[in-house]
TrEMBL record:
Its cofactor is Mg(2+); Mn(2+). Keywords: Manganese, Metal-binding, NAD, Oxidoreductase. This is Isocitrate/isopropylmalate family dehydrogenase. It comes from the Bacteria. The keyword NAD applies. The lineage of its organism: Bacteria, Bacillati, Actinomycetota, Actinomycetes, Kitasatosporales. Residues 20-356 form the Isopropylmalate dehydrogenase-like domain. The keyword Ribonucleoprotein does not apply. Signal peptide: none annotated. InterPro entries: ICDH/IPMDH, IsoPropMal-DH-like_dom.
């Protein structure tokens, strides 16, 4: 049984006995994908003896398109700050209540990165190509994306920060995640892609100290050097790639093509919070954006949302087999040509989800009392 709760405030910890999952919805196609998430998670966790509770944030967060409709910079800044503050409170309240997973549809990036800075988030994606494997850890907690704006007439000044403390947290988490991903301890290479040459030698000095402390070799490169190496000879198997968001946000889709053999429309990923007050909270999202032009047309591709629901069911509600069962069903749909127009299909969002739920093999009863809280989104 899946119980859906629409909160009256920013977040009151749930008193339910089963796992609790947070849900945050943005404008554009957000409401449609929230319904997809609820349907798929409900089906995958139907056998849970205590039920799974979905707690939805009461605020419908802005997309960039909906903000631009305001046509007033001061109002856009105000709404951006309000969205960020509300979503941060929602995440903190969920974490305090014991929730380990939140699914969020796309929202305005400026609001989102304010929250990621405050919660010290990293985005994690494990990419594979044949027998080769790459673990991408995107530093979303510092740098240009997390800066603050100051407006004067005809000018915007953006102030950003890099810190040794956050760099230590990001590298420490990345190394721990690599050990979880490749438990035999074999690691091909550790590469960091940052614009470090703009920071007076401080950043690479911090990394050198961290490498000595952890007893590993870490190669720090400018992004163009990483691109050149990627084009010339690829990256070694089991590369741990820790990257500043200035490069990784742009290159993610290219790495998916090179290592993931997947389209961003079909991909979900996770953001792990490292700030102590919310440590262990994992936010799942689609890689694609809010697709405001498709809102209300029942045409948005639901595959990434379906995959996010499967990951939440398996990792956070203890439903073993949810991910392979979902992948098998998605494969069956692809063979039958079931898909939305963006991938060459002729089906609606609802049609794809209906077919997916019909094709899903039964998932066994979940592990009672094990919500995978310690995984923090393990690969």
């Amino acid at each position: 049984m899946t119980r859906i709760v629409h909160q009256g405030g920013a977040g009151v910890p749930s008193a339910g006995a089963g796992p609790v999952v947070g849900l945050a919805v943005g404008r554009g196609t957000g409401p449609e994908l929230a319904e997809v998430f609820e349907r798929v998670l409900g089906t995958l966790t139907a056998a849970h003896p205590a039920g799974v509770e979905i707690v939805r944030s009461p605020r419908l967060y802005h997309s960039y398109v909906s903000l631009r409709a305001e046509r007033d910079i001061a109002r856009i800044r105000e709404l951006t700050a309000e969205d960020a503050e509300h979503y941060e409170r929602f995440c903190r309240a969920r974490a305090e209540g014991g929730t380990t997973a939140v699914f969020r549809t796309a929202i305005n990036a400026q609001s989102l990165y304010l929250v990621r800075r405050r919660l010290r988030a990293v985005k994690v994606d494990h990419l594979t190509a044949g027998e080769k494997s790459l673990l991408l850890v995107r530093d979303q907690a510092q740098g240009f994306y997390t800066g603050e704006n100051r407006h004067t007439e005809g000018e915007v000044t953006r102030t950003l920060t890099f810190s040794r403390e956050i760099t230590e947290a990001v590298v420490g988490y990345a190394l721990a995640r690599a050990r979880h991903t490749w438990p035999d301890g074999r690691l091909g290479r550790i590469v960091m892609a940052y614009k470090f040459h703009l920071l007076d030698g401080a950043f690479d000095a911090w990394v050198a100290g961290l490498a000595d402390r952890h007893g590993v070799r870490i190669d720090v490169f400018q992004p163009d050097t990483v691109n050149r190496n990627l084009l010339a000879h690829g990256l070694p198997d089991r590369t741990l790639l820790i990257a500043g968001n200035e490069w990784a946000d742009i290159m993610h889709v290219m790495l998916l093509d090179r290592f993931g053999s997947d389209r961003q429309e079909n991909r979900c990923t996770e953001n792990v919070c490292l700030e102590p007050g919310v440590a262990g909270l994992v936010e799942y999202q689609t890689v694609h954006g809010s697709a405001d032009d498709l809102a209300g047309r029942d045409l948005v591709n639901p595959v990434a949302t379906i995959r996010a629901a499967a990951l939440v069911a398996e990792r956070h509600a203890g439903c073993d087999g949810a991910v392979p069962a979902t992948e098998a069903a998605l494969t069956a749909l692809a063979v039958d040509g079931v898909g939305t127009p963006d991938v060459g299909g002729r089906h609606t969002t609802t049609g794809v989800v209906d077919a997916l739920l019909d094709a899903l093999a039964p998932v066994g009863a979940p592990r009672v009392g094990d919500a995978d809280a310690a995984l923090a989104g393990g690969s």
